[in-house]
Write a structure and sequence with these properties.
Length: 157
């Protein structure tokens, strides 16, 4: 099973880049994992919020494959503990999921078409974080879940 982290926005900023890269590298010991940074449309500044979300949706949906398991990150989504996330990942692996896409939407969220396509909407917290911190937390939590699956010492309950 492959894991991909998709984020609408700019490249990793320096303050988070090292951590994101480190946890992604560690995660590759369990599952192949990488990042796709989806650039906003070139004319983003001239678009309304709805137009921007629609333009981003076209890019996102065009890159999804039919069998991809799409997890949309949203503060209104389902809350999971780290052990619950580990169990969820194991269930995906057991059912033969080929690719899990964890999606961090744009500054205004995602278009309804992307929300409807999502197989799960997951909340890291009810708090709203900057995209760079969400990327770092996401990579660390997925890595943590994998260490839980292998009963390794990283996670202390």
């Amino acid at each position: 099973m492959k894991m991909q982290f998709w984020s609408v926005g700019k490249v990793h900023e320096a303050y988070a880049k090292t951590g994101i890269e480190e946890f992604t590298k560690r995660l590759n010991n369990y599952f192949p994992a990488d990042w796709l940074i989806i650039n906003p449309p070139k004319n983003a500044g001239t678009l309304s919020e709805a137009e921007l979300k629609k333009a981003e949706a076209v890019t996102i949906l065009s890159q999804l494959q039919k069998d991809d398991h799409l997890v949309l990150l949203d503060e209104r989504g389902k809350n999971l503990s780290s052990p619950e996330l580990a169990q969820w990942i194991q269930q995906r692996a057991n059912t033969g999921t080929k690719r899990i896409i964890f999606l961090i939407g744009g500054a205004f969220g995602v278009d309804e078409r992307v929300s409807q396509r999502a197989d799960m909407v997951w909340s890291l917290s009810r708090l709203v974080f900057p995209h760079m911190l969400v990327r770092l937390i996401l990579a660390e939590q997925v890595y943590r879940a994998c260490t839980i699956l292998r009963n390794e010492k990283y996670h202390h309950s």
